[in-house]
Amino acid sequence: MSVEQAVEQLKPQLLGSLLTAKDAGYEEARKVYNGMIDKRPAAIVRCADVADVIAAVRAASEGGVLTAIRGGGHNAGGLGSCDGGLVIDLSRMRGTRVDAVKRTVRVEAGCTGRDVDHATHPFGLATPTGTVSTTGIAGLTLGGGIGHLSRPFGLTIDNLLAVDMVLADGRFVTASAEENPDLYWAVRGGGGNFGVVTSFLFRLHPVSIVSAGPTFWPLEQTPEVAKAYRQFIAQAPEDVSGFMAFMNVPAVPLFPEALHNRKVCAIIWCSTADPERAEKLTKPMRSVGTPLLDGVGPMPFPVLQSLFDPLLPAGLQMYWRADFHKDLSDASIPVHQKYAEKIPAGMSLMHLYPINGAVQRVRRGDTAFNYRDSLLAGVIVGIDPDPKNKEKITNWTREYHDALHPYSAGGAYVNFRMEEGQDRVKASFGENYNRLAAIKKKYDPTNFFRVNQNIRPA
Ligand SMILES: Cc1cc2nc3c(=O)[nH]c(=O)nc-3n(C[C@H](O)[C@H](O)[C@H](O)COP(=O)(O)OP(=O)(O)OC[C@H]3O[C@@H](n4cnc5c(N)ncnc54)[C@H](O)[C@@H]3O)c2cc1C
Known about the structure:
Layout: H1 3-10, E1 17-20, H2 26-30, E2 43-46, H3 50-63, E3 67-70, E4 86-89, E5 96-99, E6 104-108, H4 113-120, E7 125-126, H5 137-143, H6 150-153, E8 160-166, E9 172-176, H7 181-187, E10 196-203, E11 205-206, E12 209-218, H8 222-235, E13 240-248, E14 263-271, H9 275-286, E15 293-294, E16 297-300, H10 301-305, E17 317-325, H11 333-341, E18 349-354, E19 376-384, H12 390-404, H13 422-429, H14 433-443
Parallel strand pairs: 2-4, 3-4
Antiparallel strand pairs: 1-2, 5-6, 6-10, 7-11, 8-9, 8-10, 12-14, 12-15, 12-16, 13-14, 13-18, 17-19, 18-19
Helix pairs in contact: 1-3, 8-11
The structure holds flavin-adenine dinucleotide (FAD).
């Protein structure tokens, strides 16, 4: 069946809307977050509810139509869209419901991190998500979910109690520890390979005010800071976190003008401890060398979560590369310093997120997320508003990654990757790949859900 025929069949069944190239709003609707991606789907279904998702999956699957699933549209490689096929867009499904007694939140699949924080903060509760609040909860969760609260409370998937989802044949199922446990195992890290998740049920934790903000050092002090950081973060109590960054100081009023556009080595802090304890625990690391700025203070958790949003609006050109690292080895430190000195102007960055603490209290085989024995999840992102600079940011990212990869654990966090081929997918899932491929065969034998970091049916 052609896409056009599938679309004609689908149209009368929808409560939501359906956009093709002929419709006003199509050009806006087809855009994804990364301005480097320019895909033109034949049709976009803006689902209003679960029934719309079931109808769209049935029509596309029976018609053999190429289909992409879109949550927040933030994926680096633009995997929330496709050329010439159907996009099942969940961005209008954004309901949330907090159960303050059971400490859970039910989240529809079109929610962003901001939607979740907004729902839970009034109850003095939060669940671990990422570090930028515009990111879609769906893609972030299905890949793992690394952020400010990973050390105290684990990855996003470690707090995922259940999902509702639509399978390739249109069946609606729940996956949890009790129901379809194989599917529950697979969706915790295996990405969108197994079906369309329509809602997530997360565990919540008491989090309200956090001690957060950046410490910046001159790049020349990178060796001293990096060596102190690796020792500090390996041993720090779980209620303290801070990711390491190499970046240009953004030229915005939040930072002193004298530092604007200066290349720095930084730690971005977040501690859930009370402010006095947070100060005591982080002060020794913040006192290493001679910081240029130490801007740590108490703030509501959602303020931290959205602190970087204005610096990273949708539409920027972005080129991503990533790897997990067992350690911040002596040999890798000069690589960071060398490429940090060459950071292109603007928001291009290198981040090293700690994934020890509570993340490592879950065993490797307990979920599909493979690299729990790594200390850090690293990501290099070349960023620029101007398409003319695409080559410059791409080359910087690639060269930095090529130089750093030999010191890595081998695979990368799937959510920090673009489309880099099947070998890299296998490296990311490592020992868990074969089990994922067997579950894929059971739930999606024709590989209908393939616009993703694809796990081929065994
Ligand atoms: C600025 C920025 C900051 C980021 N920060 C972090 C961070 O701190 N921590 C972190 O872990 N990640 C982070 N990420 C990466 C992020 O997790 C991924 O980009 C993720 O894919 C985004 O999810 P999405 O729903 O917005 O993506 P989409 O582009 O909508 O989808 C991504 C993938 O997920 C699949 N998918 C989406 N929704 C569903 C669904 N409901 N059911 C089944 N499959 C689905 C899609 O098929 C696609 O393969 C960041 C990304 C950006 C751009």
